[in-house]
Amino acid sequence: MSQPVRNIAILAHVDAGKTTLSERILFTAGEVRRPGRVEEGLATMDYLPEEKDRGITIESGVAHFEWKDTWFNFIDTPGHVDFGAEVDTALTAVEGAILVVSAASGVETQTVAAFKKLREAGVRTILFVNKLDNPDYSLDETLINIEEVLGVRPVLMTLPEYRDGKMTGVLDVLSKSRLEHSATGEEVVDEGWNVDDGWDQAHDLKKHYAEAVEFASNFDDEILKLAMEGKTVPPKMLLRGLKALAASDDYALCYAGSAMEGFGVRSLTTALTFFLPEVPAFDKGELGQVIRLRYFKGVGEISIFRSHTDLERKAWPAGFEFSRLKANLLVPVDEIRAGDIYAMRTPFETELGEVIYLDERRETRDERSEARGTNPEPRTSNPEPRASLRNKYQPLLQTRVECLGSEDFLHVDNSLNMLGRMDPSFRVQKDDGGFWYLHTVGEVQLDVLLSRLKREFGCEVKAGSPEVRWQERLCREVGPVENSFQLGPHKISIKLSATPLEGDAHDIRLSAEFLETAPREILAGVRSALLESAEVGILGKGALVGVRFEVHEFTWTEGALPPMIKKACADAVTKLIKPADVELYEPIMELSLECPVNFAGLVTGDIQSRDGKVKEIGGDGKTHFLKAEVPLRKIFGYATGVRSISKGTALYSMKLLGYRPIPASFRP
Prior knowledge:
This protein is of the alpha+beta class and 668 residues long.
């Protein structure tokens, strides 16, 4: 029987200790000799220079380890809001996840967002309460916070042990054992400890075992019967009940400890083998799915790939190569297994989300041709996940970028397109003037992209200052207008009108005659050109949203090229919609912030000076919390400002709340 495979992700708010916990899990499993520290730039999973410099995860790093005869693929996901698309793509390939909650801060904004992502993706989740090496942080308060904010009942499976104010071990509820550090730093079972010998905290351990029995009895009739009769429920039977409980949306298994000190990690790692579901069954004929794209200098493009089949090297499709990926290291393999994750190199470009099939033909985006060679050549499906992610993440900033030399234009253009394919939340708009606009979620994402453009692709560019990316909305119905474009013997003519719509969607309506007579590539070209014109906008400040274009007439000569269609449609939109027909809307951010109470007045005053409106205030006497709505244009560089005001003690996060008409007093 083949070794079981489990794919897991680890999520958390920034600074909750997610990457440190990842390192400890790898250390526990014997995959690394010593756990790397984030603050020293030695974390195994954070291999990018930008990750080491900033102390944050940017790319979803992949590592592998074995534990209890189970093979794990381990994905460490970013916690920063600018890289949320990395989290979404990682969750398409995992059976389970660890959600880290810091006992220092409790459930934070990104903790809630991560938990929501996990629920929406149907990923089974185990909680880990971190940073309990500080006895001033309360486990009980954190558990209450989890239940109140996340809406699940945490079932505690490990208890931290303290002596003289220092964490010295953890007590494992399921096995009723104590774990301590060996001389080399690994967690090991204390063979001299027995729960019935009257040790400190033994009463608490028995209490939590009884609670676990009570909760598990809701899912197992045999456990319920023994509990009602007052009989002991053995650990193996309790394990069975907890497996059913773990699949429930009402409960969450919760482990507690310290990633930094390495306590509670062994029990958590063992839980991953017990409580996560098996990999799903895949359709026959599927080679697998592309879950991420990466570019390695000296290697080129690779696909992070989840296999859907068992296949030895001799049966691999022609031109394909598979390797193990550990951070940025590639190790060739001789076979692939269903459910497992690999780095894949292919003879053609892949797209994020594509399912690749094994059969006698391959269907790419542009052609369908007979396969050649001894091994079947694959075909691919349309990358729907990428399209949905592009719609989900709204770029809030735009930055103009240009080459230092015209001879570099093609290389920079190809490199930017590659980065855009790797990250569906990042978009590139090429201007006819020979420069580009980079559309990004936030400033951190922009800085990282520019850094990688230079380091990985060798592109020297000049970048302007980032600007707020507005929304443009049509105020009134306009048109129709007629426009023609001729190049040599070829001519294209279009008659176009536009109508405002509710919401942010676009609608393109083509006349019945055009639909009946035009070939598919002409229809697709017109739709694409109009959507691209809407993305560019009328004022150049952002995308034109909520608009219906209606093509009343469209004529073309045989042999007209796609660039002619684009030019004719773009000029028609410019002719149709004037600046006076457009109203600008600006992005409004929801700012969640907490700081020591002695800085509350300064922080609140600063937010109000930025045209912010405080909507919610709270705290516990030591920590001040507030939630406010602030225009994005007023909050550039906020990290530096709030750090200065609060002497580095404030923590905050932001998310897009929506768009509102810009004030009459402000016109960009």
